[in-house]
Amino acid sequence: MEALEPVNATADAAEGFVWRLESEGGDATEIRIFEDDWLIVNMSVWRDAESLKAFIYAGRHRDLLKRRNEWFERVAEAMTALWWVPEGHRPGVREAEERLTLLREQGPTERAFTLRAEFPAPGAEG
Q1: 84/71 Cα distance (integer angstroms)
Q2: 86 lies in some domain
Q3: Spatial separation of the C-alpha atoms in residues 27 and 70, rounded to whole Å
Q4: What is the mean pLDDT of residues 83-111?
Q5: Which range has highest mean pLDDT (19-28, 73-82, 88-97)?
Q6: Residue 33 lies in a domain
Q7: Torsion of the alpha carbons at 100, 110, 86 and 59, rounded to the nearest 10
């Protein structure tokens, strides 16, 4: 938890970052998802997948990502879903629940996918 604020600050300043879900405390740790007190929601909007990958797999975030098994339980089902949102849209937790459920039930599709199985943005050359 000590790393959350500096990592969020790094994300906020990253190329391609648009928005992240926050509660009054400045992060989203107080926000429940799937009515489960043990889950932490982390939701953000990025200009494109390349910008998101550059943030995830570089610098401070990459260093912490390597140590994630120290803090998080390993789960078999998908815990991260990506989807394209219209410019200016800020998705909510219910939308995230729907997309993650869709990914878990159907696998990667244009409506919910992963960084390993991406789909192009609507209207983009694919």
Answers
A1: 29
A2: yes
A3: 21
A4: 97
A5: 88-97
A6: yes
A7: 70
Entry pTM = 0.82
pLDDT tens digits along 51-79? 999 988 877 756 666 655 565 667 778 88
Read out DSSP for 68-98? Answer: GGGTS---SS----B----TT----HHHHHH
Strands 44-46 and 17-20 turn out to be: antiparallel
Residue 114 contacts residue 82 (beta carbons within 8 Å): yes
Q: What stretches of 1-126 show up as alpha helix (H) in DSSP?
A: 4-13, 49-56, 59-65, 93-106
| Residue 49 maps to a domain | yes
- Neighbour tally for 109: CB within 10 Å: 14
Domain that holds residue 96: 4-106
- Count structural domains, the chain: 1
Percentage with pLDDT > 70 across the chain = 84
